[in-house]
Each structure stands twice: as structure tokens, then as C-alpha cells.
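Before going further, learn to read the protein records used in this course. A complete example follows; check for yourself that the lines match position by position.
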Amino acid sequence: VDVKSLFLFFFVPQVLLFACAEDLECVPGFQQKVFYIEKPFQFTEDKLVLNLKFDDCKGNNKLNFEVSNPDFTVDLDGSLVARKNVSEAGRALFVHARSEHAEDMAEIFILEANEKGGALKEILKLEGNLGIPRQKRAILATPILIPENQRPPFPRLVGKVIRSEGTEGVKFRLSGKGVDQDPKGIFRINEMNGDVSVTRTLDREAIANYELEVEVVDMNGKTIDGPVRLDVSVIDQNDNRPMFKEGPYVGHVMEGSATGTTVMRMAAFDADDAGTDNALLRYNILKQTPTKPSPNMFYIDPEKGDIVTVVSPALLDRETMESPKYELVIEAKDMGGMDVGLTGTATATILIDDKNDHPPEFTKKEFQATVKEGVTGVIVNLTVGDRDDPTTGAWRAVYSIINGNPGQSFEIHTNPQTNEGMLSVVKPLDYEISAFHTLLIKVENEDPLIPDIAYGPSSTATVQITVEDVNEGPVFHPNPMAVTKQENIPVGSVVLTVNATDPDTLQHQTIRYSVHKDPAGWLEINPTNGTVGTTAVLDRESPFVQNNVYTALFLAIDSGNPPATGTGTLHITLEDVNDNVPSLYPTLAKVCDDAKDLRVVVLGASDKDLHPNTDPFKFELSKQSGPEKLWRINRLNNTHAQVILLQNLKKANYNIPISVTDSGKPPLTNTTELRLQVCTCKKSKMDCSATDALHISLTLILLSLLSLFCKSFA
């Protein structure tokens, strides 16, 4: 199906329909409002495109035409022609006609060759929208096209609804959005003759299309014909400037990038009709700051908005630029960039990113440092220069010691603020071993160099380190010192002789000794030869002894000026001897005078000494007086025994002498009195208030004295 066939199929009936309408009544405006034409290879200058017929029904006085595309014009006879050779005219043209008595809009759709088949379907689909009936209808409601932003006076006649059967005794009624629905009152219809008017200025960007309904009713309001759809389209005018809404616009490009490298894309928005030149944008660079090394460092694709580099890679050198940041003022212009188009601007910031094309270089080949022996910390800062971006890994330095550090006495780290190399001593140096050190230092970047760049001789440097001699304190050998002694050795016994030497072998100094810390005051030291002796008895059970070890500190002082001091630690491990009697617990027990269980108490024994000078313990009762024995003691295990009453006793306090003997050699015995209270017990209450005198304990004392007296004469 070609365009000609479409025209015969679709538009001829419409022309006939308009002819019928003319027989009924003249309708001011374009007699055909919608056209479809096939896009030629180009529109030739002054060649007829098509004929438009406009009639205001009053002689077309002061008629003039306006075309949406300024490359076209309409002559007074309605001939649409191109002003010049035009290869691209967009998808549609709008022709606005205005005379002294009427105005109207015609729309010309430009179809590609491959759209002809689809166009037929669209035309058939839109028949209802265009007011072209498939069957005879009484109401003819052709689409109305109204330009936006019309100026007063209002109301303005914009269209007409025709009833083929006449209008006598009937009325037209209009409804829909823009009439009796919000926004109300924009359109109205003359009830008697069907004239459609607009009452105010329209804004296509607010509402682009109105779908109204028109019907014919009798004088009582009863519908006779319809409703029929009446479409009102608001024709776009170029009343919106392009806007850049997505800023800020920042792009990055690597230095040395190839010509034509895409940096970023600028995209503006135009609220006008996207299908017209009113929203057809073209981009342009208005200004570049700075203008060096070239005033045209970048180009913007006028249609896509892509910004690309246009200078050679050599000029895109960050280190030689006045500034690595460029600001471009970008203009977007509608109407395809023509002079009549509206414009909007935005600033694009382009940052030239650094790549590692400059190795770091030491500011000098050799650095000097002096450090005292025995001291640690930073001794010298190595300075480097690097032309790359200080905020990137292409500038940040990484240092390493590649020679002269076999003992790992030195380390080097990067100062993050200055990029200097901080060379430190981490293991104290000894002047007597080596008074000079030579290190070879290498510097690199965090980021690798680009392939065609390499580290050169300036990326290494030598550090000469001089060690200064200081008076070092004497050193004890060994330290700490350890010795084992029995506790209770005689006062004046020799514990050991300490040995300290002076590291300053070249100074030939003498050493004197002194006690620095002796918590129990048990020791002394010969100041000349370092012999340590006892001044008191060593006691393993002393609170100054921890885990059988007594610790003392001694000083060795050389004869330097000023003198230097060294400290030595002595650990004396004390061996145990049986010098502590065992102790008994508890020493108080209570029992009821009518108790059925006569097991009074379980006794335990402890000893401060160590095994084998402690348990097993031997428990014994002193001899009991009287015709009957009152209690006995039974051994339970190595450390415990049980006292048992042999009969119930009267309420009283009793003292029972019990002896405990340890297993040491020789053994030690301790006699302790167990105080036994015999109490009255009633209703689970125990009354232990004293009633009887301690006659039994006195008797026992007399018997004990008599026994000792007899033994002395035996």
C-alpha cells in the first residue's frame, strides 16, 4: 500500500464528507486538518509539498500562515513549499492559519517508506479520533487542534460540531474533562449552532489532549444523537528552555588518553513536545577554562551530548597543564540548534586523572645520620620528589632497605603527610661492635609504573650512619642469677659471687657492687668482688618468699663520668627443713548432755613445712584421770582424727589436751587443748552457759605434773 492509495482510501471520503458539510453550512478553518505524506530523499527548495485549503467563510481577509518548521512556508494560495533543500524535517509539521475572522491548525505527518503499511493500520485505528465514521452518523465532530499560549481575547472559536439533520428544535451538549470535569470550564459549545470555543490559554505541558463527548438533545434534555467523541489536541509551541537537571556534571579522563576518548555525557531535558523540533536539542561548548595548552581540548557531539577529547595524548599531560581541572560551559539549544531555538546552559567539570608516569626520585644520592649506641627511634628522614598527583598511589612512596641491614637493626616507613622515608633504629646499636653502618635504600610507588617507564638510578640512595659511643652500664652474667640454699643456714653464709662486666671495653673502668632491693634484709654484697652473704636466717615460710623463691636486686656501678649502672636479679630457691610444729583445728567443740551421737568433733592438722616434714600426723590424748575414761581419739587419715565421748557428760566446760606430731626428721610435736562445751539441749536449742567449774581440767593438769615428776626420777 503506497501513500497515494492511502490518500484515496482515507482522505477522499473525508473530503467528500467536508463537501457534504459545506452543503449544510460553511465551517471556518482548514477544510482538511490532517495529512500523511511520504518522506522524500529531501524536500527541494520552492517545490510544492501539498496544497492546504483554509476558508474563514468570510473572504479570508488578512490571511497568513505560520509553519512550525521555519524551513517551510505556506503561500497565500495554500501551497506548502520548502524555503531551501531540507533533508530532515522531523516527524510532523504544523501549519497555523489566521485571518481576520478565524484561525485553525493543520497537521502534516511525515512517514518513512517502511511505515506505509503501519500507517494504514494507524489511520484506521484513529478514525474515531479523527471523527471519520465508518457508517453514516448524524453528528460530525472533527478533531480540534489548538496552539498553546494563545493570547486574549477569549473565548476563541476553535471548531464546530455539525449535525447533518439540522439543528432546529435541538441543542448541542458538550461534556468531559475540561468542560464539566476538572479542570472545568476550559471549553464550551454553542447549544444552538455547535460552535466550540476555548475560554483561556492552554498549556500543552500541563495537558496535551482532551477527550470530550458531544451529543444532541431535545429541548427537554433527552439525547437524540450521540454521544460522539471530540478530540482536542494542544499544539506545542516552543515555550520551554532546555534544562540540565542531573548536575553537578563531573567527568574523568586519564592523562595521555587517545584522541576521541569519551569523557562523559551531558543530557538536557526539554518539556516541549518530544515529537517536534521544539524539543529537538543540539549541544555546543560555549567556553573552556583554562584555555591551555589548547583552547579546544574537548568536543561535544551535538546530538548525543558525548564529550570527547580532541587533542593528542601528548597534550593531555597532567604534569604540564596549568590545571588538571577543566570547566566547560555547555549549551543545549532546541529547534535542532537553529538560531530561533531556546537555550539552557550547564557547567561540566572534567578532571584529568593521573597515571604513574613519573617515578619517585631521591633529592640527593647520599644522606647522613648520627645515632648514639643503645638508642632506638627515627634517625633521619629521606626526601623524594614525584611529579604525579599527591592524592594517588602514583605519588605515595614505598621505601625498602636493599643492602646493609643483615641484623635487621633498621626499618624504614613512609610518612603519610610528607611522603618522606623515616629511617629508624629498631635494635640498639653497639659502638664496640661497629661504629659505622652503610645502607642502600630503594623507593617505589604504591601503584606500578606504566609499561614504558622504569625506575632509574635516582630511585636509590645511600645512608651513612655513624654510631656514637656512650657510657653503658655494666652487665650481669647471667641475668637473672639463680641459686638453691637450705633455709635456716647460718648467718654469714656465702650465697654466691655475682659477675658483671663493662661493655665499654675501650674505657677500662672499674666496677663496684651494692644491694639495690633486699625485701627481708637478709643479704649483703662485697662492693669489690661481688660476694653475696647472709645477714639473717633465711626462712622459707616468710611472706617475702613466693613459691619457695626469694628475689633480690643488686647494682653494678662503673667508674665513668657520670657513672653508669647495671641491675642484676638474684633468685634464691629455699629448701625446706622441719622447723615448724603442726597446728590443730578446730580448738572448740560443743555437744548436748543427752546426745546419742557421741562423736564430738573431727580434728585436722596442718604444717607450714613441705613434705616429707608434714603428714602423716600422729594424734594422741593425754592420760585421763578417774576410774573411767571419758573420751578417746581415733585417727581417720593422714591429716584428720575424731574425738569420741565414751559416755554422756554433765553440763560443763572441759579442756582436753591433744598432741600432734609431724613426720619430719626429727619429728616435731605440738600439744593443743581442745575446749569441749557440754550443753543443755531442749527443743533444738542449745544452752552452753557455764555451770560447773573446770574441775576436770584442773585434775588433768595435776595428773600431768605428777607424770612429768615421776619421769624425771625414773
User: Anything to note?
Assistant: The domain at 583-683 is CATH 2.60.40.60 (Immunoglobulin-like).
